[in-house]
Structure formats: structure tokens, C-alpha cells
Amino acid sequence: MDQSKPKGKPRMTEEERAALAKKLDDDLEQFMEEMAAKRAAEQTTKKPFDFDEWCKDIDQHPAFMKDLDAGLNGQYADTLSALQALKYDEDDMEDKQLSAERHKDEGNKHFKFKKYRWATDCYSEGIKVQCLDRKLNSVLYGNRAAAQKHIGNLRSAMKDCAMALKFDPRNLKAANRGAECLLELGYAQHCVDWIERAKKTFAFTKETEEEGNVTEAEKKQLDSLEQVKEKADEAVLIEERNKRKARAEERKDLEEKRRLLKALSDRKLNFRPRLPFSRPELMDWSLLDVSLAQTSERYRVSFNQDGNLQWPFLIQYPQVGQVDVLTDCDETAQIGAVLRPMFETPAEWDKDHEFRLDNIRMFVSDEWNEYVMEVWEWSTFGSILTLPGFQIVQGLPVLVIYTRDEIERKLTPVGENKFVIN
User: Fold this and answer.
1) Best exposed site among 4, 161, 218, 292 by fewest CB in 10 Å?
2) Model's pTM, two decimal places?
3) Taking Cα atoms as reference points, which of 371, 275, 355 lies closest to residue 315?
């Protein structure tokens, strides 16, 4: 027990101790930021670095004072009071320090045997102790980051690396591990920025130390950081190249959509679902993509080499429950010219060869399926699409075919080229 502890002074609660520790952290962080700003101003004015002046400035902060009583009336009086209060509670602080050390050592044992989840739990318990040793806290966060990285929790590891550097900017292992996490997560540019910031903060911290020489271990870590940065720089170049390529593809895709939508709009075709003719940037190809159970391929209306639209067509044979799929039907081609070769040889299900071009009639239905309209072998595919009331559903026009004997018994005229099939 510290003999300098005043008699009768009440012991602090955990909440009071935590509040005082937080105040010390905040004050120290603000002080370091002010020092950094001052250093930046000196660099701007080309003023040479004065180590003695830096030491004098740093000694003014309670965290670095050798005599706390000397500054009780100064700028950091509140902080000094907090330090003195914690000083008289040093027995508890020593216990916390020992507890945090034990959790760290236990975690290191589990880590050695690749029990990374157990190691993570131990480091977490050490962090919860909230001891005042900033370097120890930095090590705990850094070690937990290493365990998290082995588990695959890269984002959690990244956050722990950031906390480790906040407690101790000299923790280059944490800086390296954080950079590796960012690179593995695909944030190459963030990785480069992280490394540059870590190096600058490390250099600044070294400049403020009485013995600011870079150790051999730190040199190795700095070299490792440079190696990670080289990989990140290469990844940045690849990312930028891929972004340029993606932007070019997006422009090309938008131009294709604009051209196709204009062609469809000029032909005054009726679609379900509706297409954003005036807003090509809102166009989704899935509105026109055709996917059928009969084939694993996808089809879509497109331009052929002659600049004409070519369509997929679904051919239905209701009386026998069969279908065919036609692809790349030029809008200027006549239906008969396409179907004649197909009907010259009977399908497996057409044993009597009833479906011949001279023995069939062809129809398309209106958008509400209330009636059908007849089309002929000399009709072009494009003319079918522009029939009044005809609708293209999900990018796939449908043509219905019956044998003459079958359909003539079922047709009832309801208007000019309008029939109801009974």
C-alpha cells in the first residue's frame, strides 16, 4: 500500500475511475493533435526541428510531467487532479494491470496452439479490465486482431488494429495487420492511405520520444509495411483499370439500350411489362430476356447485321399440346419462308404429318386473350408484332398453329380478322 495516500480519502468507484481514465485519454489525444498541428505549421514555414523545444512542450502535459504538484495551477489542473486521484488508487490499478497481463499471457498460449477463438476471449477479457497501461491495451487489441484474422473476421480484426494504434501509434504489428486486412477485403486505396497515415503517426511519435531511435524490430515492421504497400499499389492500378473498363461497358450497354428502345418505340409495339422508352438508364434487360424450360439458353430481341430486329418466337400447337421455339426471326422475313423447311419433315409427335404449311392456319391472340387474329404465310414477323391489340409478353411473341380441319370447326368470326376459338 502506498504510504503517501491521505488518511480518510474515500476509494473511487469503478464508474469514477473509468471517467477519470477517459478524461486523461481525451486530454492526451487533444494534446497530441495540437502538437501535430504545431509540427505541421513548422514544416510549412521550413523551420528546422528543435528536439529540446519539443521536449519542453511535451513536459507541459501531465502525462509526461515528473512532478505533478508543479502544475496544479496551470492549464491542465483538472487533468493533474485526475492523475493524483488515480495515483492514490494505485493498488487497484496494479491489480488491473496484473489481471490484464494474465489474460494476455493466457490468450498467447491459446494462440500458440491455434485455439484462436479461445485466444480472442482471453484478449477480450483483458481489454475489459480497462487498465491504464496504454501499451498493454494496444497489445491486447493487436493480439485480438491477429486471432480474429485467423478466424476470418477481417472487419473485426481491422477495427481492433485501429484501436491498437489509437492506444500506441508505435504498434507497427497492428499497422501491418490492419493493412493486410484492408487489402484482403478489397480496399486497396484505403490500404495505401492506412499505411501512409500509420507511418506518419509512427514517425511523429518517435520524434516526441527522448530516445526516438528506430529499433531493428521496428525497421523490419516498416519494411513489411512497404511490401504490403507495394501490393496495394498494384491492386489500386488494377482497380482503376477495372473501373475504367466497367465505365466503358456501362456506356456501351446504355447506348445499346437507347438504340433498341428507340427502335421498339418507333415501331409502336405493345409490351408487358412496359418498357421505359424515354428513360434508357432505367432499362433492365430482364424485361426482354426470354428463358424457357425447353432450352437452357436465353434469348432476346436484338439487331442483326442488316440493322433489322430479330426476334425469338414461341410456336404453340394447342390441339396436340406441343411447342417449338424459333430464334433470330428477322422482322422482314415471311413466316412461310421460315416454317416451310421446318414442316417438310414431320415431328416425332406428328406421325400422320398433319402439320404441313398447306394444312395449317396461324393465329395470334390479343392482349386480353378475348379473340385471335389470323396471319398468313406471306405475313412478315414484323407485321405480326404491329397488329392492333397484339402484345409481346416478357419479350416473347407467340404464334398459335392449328390444322385446318381442327380450327374450321371451332372458329367463330367476331369482326374483321377477329375470331373466337370455341
Assistant:
1) 4
2) 0.60
3) 355
